[in-house]
Amino acid sequence: MGRAGGSLVSQTADALRQSILSGEYKPGDKLPSEAGLTELYKVSRTVVREAVAALRADKLVEARHGAGIFVLTLPIQQPQPFQDVDHDRISSIIELLELRAAVETEAAELAAVRRSPAQEEAIIRCLSAVQVCIEKAEPTAEADFKLHLAIADATNNPRFREFLEVMGQNIIPRAALRSSQSEQTAASYLRQLQNEHDVIVHAISDGDASAAREAMRKHLKGSQQRYRAMLRQG
């Protein structure tokens, strides 16, 4: 089938899919016959068959021998990984920090061994960008995330970056900076995080794998301890 035919199949499948998703055809309903669909969408039987096949592949309909095509119960949409993090729940943040500790300590160690001069420069630039945000009293989460991505890149294993990107900027919690805290307390908290960043980056720059690993471990374990203290305070 040529491009036009393929386009007709897609258009017909999309129209049928929308009819199902909108509730025009409900779970258990029988779709019109092949002839009926041909007439309804003004396409050939071949186009209808391929469109229905696409819906069957999507688990939206099923063919019952001798009875016709029936609409299935719509599949439950599962939330994407790490996109349902609740920053109002400190326990949710601690869960992420524990996972990050398992992955990013290894990333820091590998970065110290494998980084290229260009990657080292990128890490240092990202560290400076976080500092600029702190000095200007601007949000630091995005710059912080880019710093961790730069360290992941320096492992020269693309899976580390992929992992962080799947998690998204959710990996940089800022629940500790609640409105109930003073600006001075918030600034002190950020300076402490930046001091920890500085130790990590210097260890990577020095090529000291064990120091880089330990610095990242202390950074993420320290964050866990800070959030656990908040949890105990209620």
UniProtKB/TrEMBL annotation:
Which terms are listed as keywords in the entry?
A: DNA-binding, Transcription, Transcription regulation
Extract the GO molecular function terms from the UniProt entry.
DNA binding; DNA-binding transcription factor activity
Pfam families, from UniProt?
Answer: FCD, GntR
Which PANTHER family does the UniProt record give?
A: TRANSCRIPTIONAL REGULATOR, GNTR FAMILY, UXU OPERON TRANSCRIPTIONAL REGULATOR
Which segments constitute the HTH gntR-type domain?
6-74
Superkingdom classification of source:
Bacteria
Q: What is this protein called?
A: GntR family transcriptional regulator
Return the Gene3D superfamilies for the record. GntR ligand-binding domain-like, Winged helix-like DNA-binding domain superfamily/Winged helix DNA-binding domain
Which SMART domains does this UniProt record tie to the protein? FCD (SM00895), HTH_GNTR (SM00345)
Native organism is Agrobacterium bohemicum
